[in-house]
Amino acid sequence: MNVNSQVITALTSLSIPVAADVYEGAADEYITFNYADERPVVRADDADILDETTIQIHYFTRANPLAMKKRIRHLLRSAGFTIQNTQQFYESDTKYYHVVVEAWIDEIIDDVTDDEIFIAKGGVLFYVQPEV
Questions:
Q1: What confidence score (pLDDT) does residue 100 get?
Q2: What is the value of pTM for the model shown?
């Protein structure tokens, strides 16, 4: 499952750069994110159908990070993520505050084969095997 677009869309309103893995710009305030874990959490008919993806959001700033940390957490929750933990560090070598927000989201696995169909209705996931 790829949640890159969900993360970027969720954090766009912050009006600071957001990049997957590495930010190569020159802004004094920016966000990167990476995948910490991805695993199937629901199986049916010998197939994985639901993944849980855990991401780490890394917010870097030279200013007090408190207000932005709260906004990041709020926006992730609004996008369907569940916050697992938040850590804050000061990196004396770079003079940046570094906030790490770890969050997870469950999604239907999008790498199923052509003979598998999953239909979500009313919060319930149905597995349908097409007739041959």
A1: 98
A2: 0.80
